[in-house]
Amino acid sequence: MKDNNDGHSHGAPARAAMAQERADRTMTFHPDWQMTTERKRLLDDANALVPRISPPQAKEMIAHSEAVVVDLRAEDDVGITGMVSGALAVSILDLGARADPSSPSQDKRFDMAKPVIVYCANGTNAAFGGKILKDLGFRYVFNLGAYKDWAESSEALPAAQGLSFDLDMGSIRPVAAFRSRPL
């Protein structure tokens, strides 16, 4: 019996072994979402490198330093839920170019001498974003984790007041302006 177009015959025991091997390579955290063990290892490494801080710790750091706060969520999330007041909205895909001092796209608000606080929707991109910044040479990088934690601490800026980076226009403008752009 040929059942996978590789020219080899696979019976029920072989198919069960292959299914178990696939299951061993993934970790299920949600019924609809699987994380490969390699991605989990990378996430664990990033979390070990970038210290996690609480919303009160972040608030204190923002109040007593020139911390740069970076929102790594999708612009739709920012437009719906708002963001930390004064945060820069930067796509995780653009973070390296926006933060790298040698990049022509570097945003001058990224300063290696200042603390940087990153957050995202669930903490995953914040961990990876923090690692990107550490790899670029930023020494003081902190992971606030999920935006919902900040929002639940009543420190959130309402969505209508949020600012976001417009990738098409190369400027900072109110999040609400994204909604008026034709698709």
Rg calc: 21 Å
Q: How big a fraction of the residues is strand? A: 15-25%
Helix/sheet category: alpha/beta
| Whole-number mean pLDDT | 74
- Number of helical elements: 8
Question: How much helical structure, as a percent, in the residues?
Answer: 25-40%
Oligomer description: single chain
Secondary structure tally: strands = 10
Largest sheet: 4 strands, parallel
Task: Return the string of H and E elements.
Answer: HEEHHEHEEHEHEHEEEH
Distance between the termini: 51 Å
Order of neighbouring strands in the sheet with most strands? 5-3-6-7
Low-confidence stretches: 1-8, 23-32, 157-183
What coarse outline follows from CA principal-axis ratios? globular
Explain this structure to me?
This protein is an alpha/beta fold and 183 residues long. 40% of the residues lie in helices and 21% in strands. The protein is built from 8 helices and 10 strands. The chain has helices spanning 12-25, 37-49, 55-64, 75-81, 95-99, 124-136, 147-152, 176-180; strands at 26-30, 33-36, 68-71, 83-84, 88-89, 116-120, 141-146, 156-157, 163-166, 171-174. A 4-stranded parallel beta sheet has the order 5-3-6-7, sandwiched between helices. Strands 1-2 form a two-stranded antiparallel sheet. The protein has a two-stranded antiparallel ribbon with strand order 4-8. A hairpin with a 4-residue loop joins strand 9 and strand 10 (171-174). The longest helix has 14 residues, at 12-25. The radius of gyration is 21 Å and the shape is globular. Residues 1-8, 23-32 and 157-183 have low confidence and may be disordered.
